[in-house]
Fold each of these.
Amino acid sequence: MLKLGFVPLHRYPFDENWAIELKNRFIDVLSKEFRDVATIVYPLEKHTKMGLVTDDVDARNVVKLFKDEDVDGIILTTLTFGDELAGALIAEEFRGKPIIIFATKEPPTLPGGFRRSDSFCGTLSLASALYRRKIPFMFGGIVFPEDQEFRRAMDVFIRVTNIVKNFIGARIGIVGPRPERFETVTYNEAKMAEKYRQRVVNMELLEIVEEAKKLSDNDPRVIDVVNDMSKSVDLSKISKEYVLKLAKLEVILSEKVKEKSLSGLGIRCWTEIQRYYGVSPCFVMGRLTDRGIMAACEVDVYGVLTMIMQYSASLGKTPPFFIDWTIRHPEKPNVFLAWHCGNMPPSLCLPGTCNLVYHSIMYRDVGVEKAYGTLEGRVKPGIVTISRLVEYDGEFKLFITRGRALDEPGPFRGSWVWVEVSDLDKVYRTLIEEGFVHHASMIHGDYVEPLVNAAKILGIKAIVV
């Protein structure tokens, strides 16, 4: 549950009765419409004059209130002209948190021509104060709280706030080193720590494997995972030996995530784990992602962070699919194959197309008997967002595009789906020229706007195609 701080800005001599009425309307809508995802924190009359924010004294009291409540984002609303310095004081104290500014529509003019609000004029002053201080913010529009435009802007802001909250301070566990020939998944641990307070938590692949081997087939934790696996996919095509190995691996990885407070995992998924443990971890990775533990292939730390951003944008409602950018459709110029070896989250599987089988690539090196563990089949169709985080010379960039996963068959092994975008040539060229890599994260739904705004708050350059 997020906590959002609501700041009701007012300036004398504008109509304080109108400001109080409007404040109460905003609080009522915010508290009712978004109660399932956010708690609204706001000043009462014991905190500020009339429960409004009119000067620096009020602003400092609100800062204390918000810090005590540990709010995740700030809603600055000019109910009348608003005091820009009071708003700026609060924004300065929460620099780095998502901030949205709302202007409000005008009430009828009083007899004698007195303007009761003049909100937009004050909003310009407030926005310029934040801009001058280089504090990033969103503008939600000129609204009444009952407007659909307000609800839509708040929906985006809540998703942005969730992205920022989960991105800052993320702890990414890596299981083993990256593949030696995959320089593409290198990362800058120092910059992650410096800019975003993130940490990479190293774990030995051998240690994970040895702990999994020690688990009994009758361990209640293992049995629970096997039973849960059977609910999501037909296990009859592989031996129980392999199912148990997969379940044990999932138990250990899940416990490591809890023990070390991890946000996600980058896993060395070939070929050592096949050689020395006897399964491919793809199905387990997809199941972890389904459970909200983002798991990326080939120890791709920035890939995990991209998945976290997408999953947060969905408010945890749908899991992403960690993909490779691959081939163009032989007949459709704007369609490409979104593919990976077998790590699709089971909830994304198009019914009737998925099977738990052996790895279509690794078996050539390790043999079929050590390669079981891939969930192969088609991803369900629908609108999707595809994105990828990279970093060069300390600058982080986020590629974002939207597309449509198609309901179209194909001859492929692995987890896959044909995806149509508006201009595949431009997508391919942008990926190449901007230094993006062959891994990306794809999630069902259109989350372009929340991702772009979150990137703005985080100081990440958004590149939208």
Amino acid sequence: MSKGMGAPACTMASYSMITMKKFAGAMFLLGAVFLNLTFLAQPFHNPSRTQAQNRSLMVLIWDWPYGHALNLTGDPCATLCSIKGCQLTWNRNLYNQADVVVFHHWALQHRRSRPPASKPHPGQKWVWLSLESPSHSNDLARWDGVFNWTMTFRRDSDIFIPYGELVAQPSDEVDIPEKSGLVSWVISHYHHTQQRAQLFRNLSKYIKVDVYGRANKKPLCPACLLPTISKYKFYLAFENSVHRDYITEKLWRNSLLAGSVPVVMGPPRANYQQFIPGDAFIHVDDFGSVKELADFLLTMNESRYQRFFEWKRSFAVKLYDSWPERFCTICQCFPSLPQGKVYHSLEKWFWS
């Protein structure tokens, strides 16, 4: 398993300076370097912007994520990610000056917004953003030939924004919360036709599952979520649909961070192992039947159970749930993003 997995890497760019033997020579060289850097900055150039504005990359967030306003005061990218020269704005009046414009598919899908008819200059890039699975992303064909870059949970996105990752953090001790229950599940949107709902009903025939969430009229307050789940040995990290790389907070926060062994239903085991060690979770596909899965959970001895937490000796969970941090990733990735790219079929790419 690789470390980092290409997740948002908020690192400050470093620069080196050449030391000259003579002060006068150094001043001359620095002047030349300054002129060269000004020339190299031309890809960011927008004729409608002032010289001072050209020092920053401007990212315009066209739609608030799920309609929730963000606090973008100050310099969030410098504060959160040590990224300088990255200006985030929601002010559509700055559209003509923006280098990058981000459109959230949730708003497009629900007709809450519409992109402008055209770009103000050829250098402006449009980003299609979605954290929902293809099964819950409708009307994709409407945007064929519109967007330059994608920003999703998919590892092959131009801008990769996973729900979480394991970061290197060696530890001599493995902390396992005290357990008083066997299996829990938190579910807000329950539809009986979903694969996860069918699996839950079949599993419930052989093992008791304590269900929380709005769907079961047992909601948990935000501060109650992790302490409640941590009391259970296993957590049903069932995704609402099965797609490549679609591994959400159900694994990262509700299971691994809470200290409960995830029983996952989602993409194949091999896909999960591109994110976490293979001995850190239980995949429903590992069993020939639901009864076999239930028997495995019911007969688990303590020694075997503790081995699921060996990953804690080397890693810690890092959640990516800050929207400003996600948007700052655009500036982090910008120098290496492909130029001249257009998605002629978002649907074909997203469902591949």
